[in-house]
Amino acid sequence: MTLRVVVADDQALVRTGFRMIIDARDDLEVVGEACDGQEAVRLARELAPDVVLMDVRMPVVDGIEATRRIAASGSGARVLVLTTWDVDAHVVAALRAGASGFLLKDMRPGELVDAIRVTARGDALLAPAVLSRVLDRFLRTTPDLAPPPSLADVSVREREVLTLIGQALSNAEIADRLCLSEATVKNHVTAVLRKLGLRDRVQAVVAAYDHGLVRPHSP
C-alpha cells in the first residue's frame, strides 16, 4: 500500500526537497503541497492523506492551528510537525493540538522516510522518554490551548495504565508493574485512547501530564 503524504511549508524549495525524497520511495507518494496552514487543512480534507508534514511557522493559518483543525475534523491524517529546534515550545503546543510527533528540519532523508512510515502506522514517533523530557521543560510554561479530555468514563484500571504511559513505560513494562498480560494492557490502552478521543500514545502522554497524573521529574 502506498502512503499518501501532504507537505505543508511556506518555502517552495523545502516542499520540493521533501517531494523528491518522498516520491523516490515506492511506498510513499506526495499527493499535495500547501504553502500555508489553511491550505493544509483543505488538502487534508479533500485528499485524505495518511500523513501531513506540517511546518509550524506559516502565513494565514500557522501549523499549530492547522493541526488543531485537522484533528478536530475527524480526519484520519496524522500530523508530523517540522521544527528547527528540538526543544521548541511550539512543539508542545502542536502535540497538544493533535500532532503525532515532530521532526527537525535538518534530518537525514532516511530519517524523514522512516518517520512517515512510523507515524502512518499509528506508532509514537517520539520515544515516550524523549517526549517526557520535552514536556518536563515546557508543559508548565505553555498556556493551555484547550481543556484536557474528561476522565469521567475512564475506569480506575485504565487511569493506572494512562499514568504509566505518561511515565514512559512500554506495554510490557506496564504489564509487569500491574501483573497483567500484555494483551490485557493493549486492550486497556486502546480503551483509553478511544474514551479520551486520542489518536496515539503520544497524545496519551500529553493527556497524562495535562491531568496531573504525571508531574515533571516524577519517577
Automatic annotation (TrEMBL):
Alphabetic keyword roster: DNA-binding, Phosphoprotein, Transcription, Transcription regulation
GO terms classed as biological process: phosphorelay signal transduction system; regulation of DNA-templated transcription
Stored Pfam families: GerE, Response_reg
Protein name as annotated: Response regulator
SMART domains: HTH_LUXR, REC
Cited InterPro entries: CheY-like_superfamily, NreC/VraR/RcsB-like_REC, Sig_transdc_resp-reg_C-effctor, Sig_transdc_resp-reg_receiver, Tscrpt_reg_LuxR_C, WalR-like
Molecular-function GO term, any one: DNA binding
Domain of life assignment: Bacteria
Annotated organism of origin: Streptomyces fagopyri
4-aspartylphosphate: modified positions: 55
Domain (HTH luxR-type) ranges: 147-212
Response regulatory domain location: 4-120
SUPFAM superfamilies: C-terminal effector domain of the bipartite response regulators (SSF46894), CheY-like (SSF52172)
